[in-house]
Amino acid sequence: MQRLIFTNDVAAQLAGIVAEIAPNRVYILTDSNTEAIGNELNTFGAKMITIQPGDEHKDLHSLADIWSELSLSGATRRSLLINVGGGMITDIGGFAAASFKRGIRFINVPTTLLGAVDAAVGGKTGVNFLHFKNEIGAFAAADAVIISTRYFSTLPAAELRSGFAEMLKHGLISSADTYRRLLAFDIVDADLDALLPLLEENVGVKRRIVEIDPREQGLRKALNLGHTAGHAFESLAMERQAPVPHGFAVAHGLLVEMVIAHLLEGFPSAELQIFAALLREAYAPAPAITCDDYPRLLDLMSHDKKNVSADKINFTLLSEPGTPLIDRTADTDTIKTALDLYRTLLNI
Ligand SMILES: NC(=O)c1ccc[n+]([C@@H]2O[C@H](COP(=O)([O-])OP(=O)(O)OC[C@H]3O[C@@H](n4cnc5c(N)ncnc54)[C@H](O)[C@@H]3O)[C@@H](O)[C@H]2O)c1
Ligand SMILES: [Zn+2]
């Protein structure tokens, strides 16, 4: 089982685990933005490997650089790689570790909220290839994930909110109480100490789901909540050359899918108003869409999930906060109605 440690004393915890594992060589992987954090944590003489930041560098080129550094410095099966960074670093570092000499141990120290709540936990690793995200990869669990909120103080505000959208999603698919606690948290003026226990509870949601369904055959699909519509917003923004942070697209995708759930599964209308208010406060501006964008959005949604017929799109829905419904479908008329209602809720 993957060890998850929540602490604001990362250096001491990390040194303890490294001593326990007793590897013959230790490496710390960072990007140039997290290199200083890596250096600060390096109390045990690890060799630093630093790559360029940004998802466009989560590619074979950077991967080959990491493999080369490991190979040429004599890393073996008994060596350890510590990934210190956002999801980009834990994804590529996890895959480098999973593939080097058929697999060496690795530890993740996420430094972004999205990394902590999503990417660093759950065993999906990989790189982008051709024009496809995460096209090449492997399921491989870190030996340990050490999670702290202290590094988030240097994150741009939008990145923090983006990660918080995934926390809201975890609340919505797990428990009404968890979801309410998140709604009560002020992510616009965030208290990072108060965020740590919420994060611990939240990462627990993902961990439980992944343990039950590691290969995404059933329950893990609940984690797609907000992502069918969210990915469509994300892709549309990209096509318009005005990209939005992933979590902003997901936050708006969550409202669209809540409206679909309202239409098909009786999800309460009062909840729609509450979530719309949060979007107006923390996830503005809303995507600038009109009815003319519906065909493209529907097209993007139908390509997001495989094995659906042309006029039915697969969604994870909710009957109420805390109760996910996987493998549901909505037809295009329902989705168009939902997009109309979504725009009305946000005055778009
Ligand atoms: N494996 C999974 O299950 C999973 C889940 C979700 C997302 N992901 C992947 O995660 C990536 C997105 O994660 P991300 O948003 O963390 O991206 P990222 O790692 O690219 O980080 C975003 C930016 O913040 C910088 N940064 C990192 N930590 C910082 C800090 N403490 N202070 C200031 N700047 C900092 C990074 O250098 C980068 O420029 C994508 O590649 C996505 O595919 C994977
Ligand atoms: Zn996501």
What does this 3D model show about the protein?
The chain is an alpha/beta fold. The protein folds into two domains: 3-154, Rossmann fold (3-Layer(aba) Sandwich); 160-191 and 218-346, Up-down Bundle (Dehydroquinate synthase-like, alpha domain). It is 50% helix and 18% strand. The strands form three sheets. Strands 1-8-5-4-2-3 form a six-stranded parallel beta sheet, with helices on both faces. It is globular and about 60 Å long. The termini are far apart. The structure holds nicotinamide-adenine-dinucleotide and zinc ion.
Q: Give, in order, the helices and strands.
A: EHEHEHEHEHEEEHHHHHHHEEH
CATH homologous superfamily descriptor of the largest domain? Dehydroquinate synthase-like - alpha domain
List how many beta strands DSSP finds: 10
Q: Per the principal axes of the C-alpha atoms, what is the gross shape?
A: globular
CATH topology of the largest domain: Dehydroquinate synthase-like, alpha domain
Average pLDDT, rounded to a whole number, is 95
Helix content: 40-55%
Ligands bound, unique: nicotinamide-adenine-dinucleotide, zinc ion
Q: What would you call the structural class? A: alpha/beta
Number of domains: 2
How much of the residues is beta strand, in percent?
Answer: 15-25%
The DSSP helix count reads 13
Q: Whole-Å distance between the termini? A: 46 Å
Give the radius of gyration.
20 Å
**Strand numbers in spatial order across the main sheet:** 1-8-5-4-2-3
